[in-house]
Amino acid sequence: MLAAIFAAVVLLAAGFAFLNGFRDVSTAVALATRTRALTPSVAVLLAAFFNFIGALLSATLAVGVSQNWITLPAGTSGLSILVAGLVSSCAWGLLMWWRGIPASSTHALVGGLAGAGLASLAVGGAGVGGVDQSLLFQVILPLVLSPLVAYGAAFLLVYPATWAARYTQPNVVNQRFRRSQAIAAGAVAFGHGLQDGQRASAVLLLALLAAGYSDGGSIPVWVVLLSAVMMTAGTLFGGWRISHTIGYKITRVDPLRGSVAQIYSAATLFVGAIALHLPLSTTHTVTAAVLGAGENQNFSVTNRKLVLRILGLWILTPAATAALAFVLALALSPLPG
Question: What is the pLDDT of residue 224?
């Protein structure tokens, strides 16, 4: 039974990584394709390559995440929590993709694990250790602070960019910033791989620990390769529904503002992953930065009704996945420990 549930966790983690790349590729390439800096096919190939490299390099960060993130009970109870959390986060991710809404995979996963942990406690089992701290530092604070900072920073950075280009012909400005966007798109994809690659790897490490197959001191090569390959495969398929929302529906940006938003987003993801070891949502960072840069124009181009809807779904994400995972974990509770 233990081996079967472990295999289910591996398959679900692979699906989570695939869906992560499938949905979040939009954040890297939406603006570059919107401003014609890159063609869709080239943009996806570029994003897939840098996503793969970033996910591979995130392996060293995944060990620290798995050790400092949460702790699971040993045996089938811990693996069942992972199954419920992964199923709920994947289901929510598919729903958000179908509706064309950019939402955080990380927040969905943490919410799902929290809900599954509560269900385990409800039936007299062991809960998820450290989930309260994880909710605070990986969901609540980033949910509130990350979009606000990204919005404000991108809005303000438009001023020096437009000042530097004030004497340059518009067609030259657009040409230069389209080149900049092509580079920035790869940087955002690389930052996404650094950030989100460690999530899938950390889940697999937690599964290995719960099943007793690892002591958690190092990360197996197959875990790294599975996470990177599945995320890259998802990227190659591409979730263009969300790309259309970011590039066309939320706001309209020119190459200058698109470049500002992407460069800031990439820098933030790098600093968060490498220097601060802070889990940041690529979706939240890029979406808020695009909105901030787009707002700094002489005419209103923002679909505020859609923005409010997206914000509401961001807040709902951890609660919805927690509720679904709670029900799923209760259904799995009769499994022998």
Answer: 86
Across 243-272, average pLDDT:
85
- Return the C-alpha torsion angle 102, 279, 261, 308, nearest 10: 40
Output the CA–CA distances (angstroms, integers) from residue 108 to 20, 85, 95, 199, 212, in the order listed. Answer: 11, 8, 12, 12, 26
User: Residue 130 burial by CB count (10 A; 0-12/13-18/19+): exposed, middle or buried?
Assistant: middle
Name the token pair of 141. Answer: 């604070």
| DSSP secondary structure, 130-149, as one string | THHHHHIIIIIHHHHHHHHH
Q: Could you identify the residue written with the tokens 């039974």?
A: 1
d(CA 112, CA 93) in angstroms, rounded, equals 12
pLDDT at residue 68 is higher than 80: no
> What is the amino acid identity at position 284?
H
CB 214 within 8 A of CB 20: no
Rounded CA gap, 125 and 54, in Å?
37
3-state secondary structure of 71: strand
* Tokens representing residue 185 in the block: 């798109």
CA 177 to each of CA 32, 88, 152, 160: distance values in angstroms, whole numbers, following the listed order:
10, 40, 21, 14
Q: Model pTM?
A: 0.86
Q: Assign residue 168 a region: left if phi > 0, alpha if psi is -120 to 50, beta otherwise?
A: beta
Q: What is the tally of helices (H) and strands (E) in the chain?
A: 13, 0
Q: Are 65 and 109 in contact (CB under 8 A)?
A: no
Residues whose CB is less than 8 angstroms from the CB of residue 170 and which lie 6 or more positions away in sequence, other chains included: none
Q: Which residues of 174-209 are buried (b: 16+ CB within 10 A; e: fewer)?
A: beebbebbbbbbbbbbbbbbbbbbbbbbbbbbbbbb
**pLDDT for 227 beyond 80:** yes
